Amino acid sequence: MLRRVVTGVAMACLMGGAAYAQDETGGQDNQCADQLTKAEEIVHDKIDSGALSQDDADKANILLDEAQDKCTSGDSAGAITTLDSVMAMTGKAN
């Protein structure tokens, strides 16, 4: 019985710490995700309108994937730098 209580308390502490860590970086992650979504919409609009060549569209999609990986891993600054490159390809300022 004591083992279950100790395990329950330990799990609660671990989960509380993870939630606190998410709250601390939530602002950066949200900004990163918002900019990623904006860039994806612009790229897809450019692709749909034929304003990007197939090569440029492929490069932009590769950069968007890289930015998403960086956002997910917590490298917001790296992701935003990558998104700036995407925006430059589309002719829009980020």
Query: How far apart lie the N and C ends?
Result: 57 Å
Query: In percent, how helical is the residue content?
Result: over 70%
Beta-strand fraction estimate: under 5%
**Average residue-wise pLDDT:** 79
What does this structure look like?
With 94 residues, the chain is mainly α. It has a domain at 26-90. Helices cover 88% and strands 0% of the residues. It has three helices and no strands. Helix 1 runs antiparallel to helix 2 (54-73), helix 1 (2-49) packs parallel to helix 3 (76-90) and helix 2 runs antiparallel to helix 3. The protein is elongated and about 50 Å long. The chain starts with a helix and ends with a helix. Residues 18-25 have low confidence and may be disordered.
Structure keywords:
3 helices; 88% helix; mainly alpha; 94 residues; single chain
Summarize it.
The chain is mainly alpha-helical and 94 residues long.
Helix and strand arrangement:
Elements: H1 2-49, H2 54-73, H3 76-90
